[in-house]
Amino acid sequence: MNTPVLRRALTTAAAAGGTAALILAGAGAASAHVGVTPDKTSANSYALLTFAIPHGCEESGTTKVAITLPEELNDAQPTVNPNWTVEKVTQQLSEPKKLADGSSITKRTSQIVYTAKAPLPHELRDTLVLSVKLPDLPGTTLNFPTLQTCETGQTDWSEIAKDGQDPHSLEAPAPSVTITEAAAADGHGAAATGAAHTEQASAVTDSGADARSWAGLGAGVAGLVLGGVALVRSGSRRKAGAGK
């Protein structure tokens, strides 16, 4: 085999392998912290926040996850996870807080605490989901400092990036969600309804057209069958008449 060609092939393979290793290392680093993924970020909307628990403390299994709610939120509804028990921690406010509807509250939910029924092995991951009402504050970043307790040790995911700082540069960043502008009618308004009606009408129309096409085809086939039967019968009668 041509030696220069072999060398080039090996060099290319080594470079590709090195690139793949760097990509995998980056992916591992990116997924090494507790993070949150919202299903929506629109201001004044209800959102499901999914917190990922990807690993334990070093090689120790996770036993508890305490998620602190930002002051902008008054409450959160935790989703049941069969592997964990869950409780709300309430905070007494120093003074009543007035809400948008004119009512006032004297306490709020400050923390959601999930306790593992059995330690979550460090090589496995799980997810914890909270339902929250996002405030009408587009552009605001909500931080959720999260304390991960393990069989041995704990990790406090509470570092918050300063202005202009890349959150990924932090060693233990707090999970965060940035609120965006409110969606038009947030999926429940006239525009969305009209779109739904249009889609439904389109589906009905398409189904009707398909039904009519199949009906026409069926009628055509039936006609051919009946015609064939009639032709056979006619031939049979002519043969019978000729035999008499």
TrEMBL record:
InterPro entries reported in the protein's UniProt record: TAT_signal, YcnI-copper_dom, YcnI-like_sf
Could you tell me the keywords of this UniProt record?
Answer: Membrane, Signal, Transmembrane, Transmembrane helix
CDD domains the UniProt entry points to: YcnI_like
Specify the YncI copper-binding domain's residue ranges: 33-179
Q: Where is the signal peptide?
A: 1-32
State what protein this is by name.
Answer: Nuclear export factor GLE1
Q: Where are the transmembrane segments?
A: 214-232
Q: Name one Pfam family in it.
A: DUF1775
